[in-house]
C-alpha cells in the first residue's frame, strides 16, 4: 500500500482555499483524480463503492433509507433512519416509476433486509441500479445506528465511462487537516481496485468555483 503525504495534501487544500474567490455561499471542497491505463470496457475495472469519511461534511449529511420489516423496521426507526419502507410500501410501488425515481432523488443510500432484495430488485432495480443505489444487504444482527451514521458521513465513488474519480471531501470552512484526512480515506479506498501511483495520471483539489490545485500526495 502506498504511503500518502498528509502534509502535501494539507498544503494543496490550503492553496485551493486561498485561490478561490469569496462567494455568497459555502463552497464545497472537491477531490478530482484522473486515472490512466485503466480499461473501462472491462466490467471488473469499473468502480461503485461507498467510502466512509473520518470527518463528516457540515451540512452535507447523506440521507439513508432503510427497507425492512418486523423488528428490523422498528430498530431502523429507533436508529434514526431518514425513511423506513416496509415490504408493503415496496409492493405498492410496482409499476410506479415516478415514485421510485422520487425516492432515488431524495435518498443517497439504501440498505435493506436481505430477504427483501429479490422484491426490491424486481420493482426498484430498474431505477436504482443505473444510479448505483441498489441497497446494501443487512441482517437483524446489524448495529443499525452505527451503520446509518457511517453512511451519513460517506461518499459514493463511481468510475464507469470516464477514467475519473470526483467527490466532495469537505467545505471551505472545515479544518484543512480534516479535509486532507478525508482525501486520504478516498485514496485508500480506490487503492483496493487501482494501483497508486501507477494508475493515477494526476490529482487535484478545488473549491466549487475555484481553480484546481494539483498535488502529488504519495511519498
Could you explain the architecture of this structure?
- This protein is an alpha/beta fold and 219 residues long.
- The strands form three sheets. A four-stranded antiparallel β-sheet has the order 8-1-9-10.
- The longest helix is centred in the last third of the chain and has 15 residues.
- It is globular.
- The model has no long low-confidence stretch (mean pLDDT 94).
Protein topology:
Layout: H1 6-19, E1 28-35, E2 47-52, E3 64-67, H2 70-78, E4 83-85, H3 87-92, H4 97-106, E5 109-113, H5 117-123, H6 125-128, E6 136-138, H7 144-152, E7 154-159, E8 164-171, H8 176-190, E9 200-207, E10 213-215
Parallel strand pairs: 3-4, 3-5, 5-6
Antiparallel strand pairs: 1-8, 1-9, 2-7, 9-10
Helix pairs in contact: 1-8
* Residue fraction in strands: 15-25%
Low-confidence stretches: none
Kindly report the name of the CATH homologous superfamily of the largest domain.
Ribosomal protein L1/L10, rRNA-binding domain
Q: What form results from the Cα inertia axes?
A: globular
The pLDDT mean sits at 94
Main sheet attributes: strand count, strand direction, barrel closure? 4 strands, antiparallel
Strand order of the largest sheet: 8-1-9-10
What's the helix count?
8
CATH architecture of the largest domain: 2-Layer Sandwich
- Helix and strand string, N-terminal first? HEEEHEHHEHHEHEEHEE
Rg calc: 19 Å
| Number of DSSP strand runs | 10
Q: In CATH terms, what is the fold-level topology of the largest domain?
A: Ribulose 1,5 Bisphosphate Carboxylase/Oxygenase
CATH class of the largest domain: Alpha Beta
Total count of domains: 2
Amino acid at each position: 500500500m502506498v504511503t500518502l503525504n498528509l502534509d502535501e495534501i494539507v498544503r494543496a487544500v490550503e492553496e485551493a482555499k486561498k485561490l478561490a474567490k469569496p462567494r455568497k455561499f459555502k463552497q464545497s471542497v472537491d477531490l478530482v483524480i484522473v486515472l490512466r491505463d485503466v480499461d473501462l470496457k472491462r466490467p471488473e475495472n469499473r468502480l461503485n463503492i461507498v467510502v466512509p469519511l473520518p470527518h463528516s461534511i457540515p451540512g452535507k449529511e447523506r440521507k439513508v433509507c432503510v427497507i425492512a420489516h418486523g423488528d428490523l423496521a422498528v430498530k431502523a426507526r429507533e436508529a434514526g433512519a431518514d425513511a423506513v419502507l416496509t415490504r408493503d410500501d415496496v409492493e405498492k410501488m410496482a409499476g410506479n416509476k415516478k415514485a421510485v425515481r422520487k425516492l432515488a432523488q431524495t435518498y443517497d443510500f439504501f440498505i435493506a433486509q436481505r430477504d427483501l432484495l429479490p422484491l426490491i430488485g424486481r420493482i426498484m432495480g430498474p431505477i436504482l441500479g443505473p444510479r448505483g443505489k441498489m441497497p446494501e444487504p443487512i441482517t437483524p444482527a446489524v448495529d443499525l445506528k452505527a451503520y446509518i451514521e457511517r453512511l451519513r458521513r460517506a461518499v459514493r465513488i463511481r468510475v464507469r465511462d470516464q477514467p475519473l474519480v470526483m467527490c466532495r471531501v469537505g467545505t471551505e470552512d472545515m479544518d484543512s487537516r480534516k479535509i486532507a484526512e478525508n482525501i486520504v480515506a478516498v485514496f485508500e479506498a480506490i487503492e483496493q481496485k487501482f494501483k497508486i501511483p501507477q494508475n493515477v495520471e494526476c490529482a487535484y483539489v478545488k473549491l466549487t468555483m475555484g481553480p484546481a490545485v494539483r498535488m502529488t500526495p504519495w511519498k
